[in-house]
Write a structure and sequence with these properties.
By secondary structure, the protein is of the alpha+beta class. The chain is built from eight helices and 26 strands.
């Protein structure tokens, strides 16, 4: 029934009953307030023993403030209650349904090998740029595409230059004067030096002196066996002095640039033996050594680069191939480790869920070291033989974090509620009762 349709007398009786209930509640609050004011022990504030971070319950602080471990306020621990930690108890049946598995922190041998991925790159020490020593016109181009293989002393291009042509004629004139019995050795040497500076080889200069035939377009030759990696000109182009015509790379040796995780890079050393394998060459491996460890860490991937030099005289490897590299380090014993899946990395900390007596779980912050074969080295936070959760720990960690957050919320909201008091005393119940009769 809709109460607003009640007759007037019934509605008045209902309002009177509601006023009586409200008056009783107000009287109870007023009585409790007066009792607390008259009782000195009730006014006594709870004594704080210390403040702590529920997520890192070990350290204690003598004053409130922000936690140095997490982005949260420190929680007080009072003398009249047992300190609340961040542990949780989960029903064994629920644990079984979640498929929670356990493992122990064990001391044992830690493999000295490290697996890493790398990319093949050209040896930058064996890259050379072919330039024009003087301005001129590219009359012929014998290399037309990137990737072409060239041999040492193979002609790459032919360059016509008026300055080079004039320098050849000066050499022939000095040579003729010497043949006529005139002593001009300094002039002859100067002409030869000028041609060398213009890029002519010793063989080309000797041929010029023996034949007397001036070369209209001087060929530019390859300085070594290699591959063309860049072409900057085309036939018929006019180029200034010092222009880059093309770039060559010697692929007889190659680099493999590997990325090593930052937390595993401390033991990297030059000359550390490495074995590289390639998907394109199954069953084959290439041996090398770490040639250089790069000084900077990649800020995005948190990895450190290292360089390995491989011999490629057979030409089986090519730049940009993907390599799987095994680094052979010294095996270490007496290393405390847990399964890597037991470690929760939050970005700010590393946590494992430790198993305590009575089916209690508690998150423990740990310092981790190297990682090998699915196991992670524990530097601080656990002891040998201590059990940890190896699967399902994310649910337990979330439950523990929620409990600590709720406890902090309760502590923060309890203080304002305890301090709140009515500004005016609530009238006594008999006043409401008399007023109702009047």
């Amino acid at each position: 029934m809709n109460n607003f349709n009640l007759p007037g007398a019934s509605r008045n009786r209902l309002l009177a009953a509601a006023l009586l209930v409200l008056g009783a509640a107000g009287a109870a609050a007023w009585y409790a307030h007066n009792q607390k004011a008259d009782n000195p022990s009730a006014r006594t504030e709870r004594k704080v023993l210390y403040w702590h971070d529920p997520m890192v319950p070990g350290p204690r602080f003598d004053k409130p403030g922000k936690s140095p471990f997490m982005d949260m306020d420190l929680v007080p621990v009072y003398a009249d209650e047992q300190a609340v930690d961040a542990s949780v108890i989960i029903n064994p049946r629920a644990l079984q349904n979640l498929g929670v598995r356990y493992a122990k922190a064990e001391i044992g041998a830690f493999p000295g090998q490290l697996e890493a991925l790398g990319v093949v790159k050209a040896d930058e020490k064996k890259i050379q740029v072919v330039q024009s020593r003087q301005g001129g016109i590219v009359e012929a181009l014998h290399v037309h595409a990137v990737g072409e293989k060239v041999r040492r002393d193979q002609p790459l291009a032919e360059l016509y230059s008026p300055d080079l042509l004039s320098a050849q004629e000066e050499l022939l004139l000095a040579k003729k004067m010497q043949d006529d019995g005139k002593s001009n050795a300094p002039l002859l040497d100067s002409a030869r030096t000028r041609l060398r500076l213009f890029g002519m080889s010793v063989q080309q200069i000797m041929q010029l002196e023996s034949t007397g035939n001036v070369l209209r377009a001087v060929p530019l030759t390859a300085p070594f066996d290699g591959v063309v990696t860049e072409i900057s000109v085309r036939q018929g182009m006019t180029v200034p002095a010092g222009a880059s015509l093309m770039t060559l790379a010697d692929l007889g040796t190659l680099w493999v640039i590997i990325d090593v995780p930052e937390n595993q890079s401390a033991w990297l050393k030059p000359d550390l033996r490495a074995e590289a394998r390639f998907a394109a060459l199954p069953g084959h491996s290439f041996s090398g050594k770490i040639d250089q460890i790069y000084p900077a860490v990649n800020a995005a991937s948190r990895t450190l680069k290292a360089r390995i030099v491989l011999d490629n005289t057979r030409g089986e490897l090519r730049p940009d191939m993907l390599a799987s590299v095994t680094l052979d380090g010294q095996e270490e014993s007496n290393v405390l480790a847990v399964p890597s899946e037991a470690v929760i990395a939050t970005g700010k900390r590393n946590v494992v869920i430790a198993v305590q007596d009575g089916g209690r779980f508690v998150p423990v912050e740990v310092a981790v070291g190297r990682e090998r074969d699915g196991r992670t080295e524990i530097l601080k936070g656990l002891q040998a033989g201590q059990s940890v959760v190896a699967s399902g720990q994310f649910l337990i960690d979330s439950e523990s974090s929620l409990k600590a957050a709720l406890k902090r919320f309760d502590d923060d909201s309890a203080a304002p509620a305890a301090q709140a008091a009515p500004a005016q005393p609530v009238p006594a119940p008999h006043q409401h009762h008399d007023h109702a009769h009047h």
